[in-house]
Amino acid sequence: MSGLAMRPHPATLKHEVKMTMPYPRAGCRRPSLLLRASAAITLSAVSTLALMQPSEAAPRRHHYREGGVVACSHYGRGCIRGPVRDGAVERQVRMPGGTWIGCKSSCSRTLREEALDYFETLRDRVWDN
Questions:
Q1: Is the model's pTM score more than 0.70?
Q2: Which whole number is the average pLDDT over 53-79?
Q3: Residue 8, Cβ neighbours under 10 Å: how many?
Q4: Which of 18, 28, 89, 93 fits a 20 to 30 Å CA distance from 57?
């Protein structure tokens, strides 16, 4: 029995309080009260932001009417109308083929540049660089 310590029977340890380390590593200190308080505050702030409605987080700047936007060509190709919807990050306008694309500065300008004046817009961008 050398090297093995005899353990008392569990029934005799009813009133004895066991002191155990909550952390497995030797020498690891418990987090301070300040650290735990700051973690609790951060957690509550993050949960509050997660529960906010999008209307409370950032008010919308543009209010488009029910019919959407109208875009007219700068090069005489006529005008088109496209519906607008709220996307996950930004507003989106529907192209004539049915594809929804994100609005850049304004939805009517995006519709005009991507549907009516596509090649002229590409040419202007190449010459601007």
A1: no
A2: 71
A3: 8
A4: 93
What are φ and ψ of residue 81, in 5° steps? Answer: -120, 140
Range of the domain at 122: 69-128
Neighbour count for residue 35 (Cβ, 10 Å): 10
The DSSP H or E segment spanning 37 is helix 33-51
The answer to whether residue 1 sits within a structural domain is no
- Which two tokens mark 43? 């957690």
| The two three-digit tokens of residue 78, written as one number | 């006529």
d(CA 88, CA 65): 20
Q: How far apart are CA 123 and CA 125, in angstroms?
A: 5
In a domain, 107, yes or no: yes
Asked if pLDDT for residue 94 goes beyond 60, the answer is yes
Of 129, 126, 93, nearest to 112 by C-alpha is 93
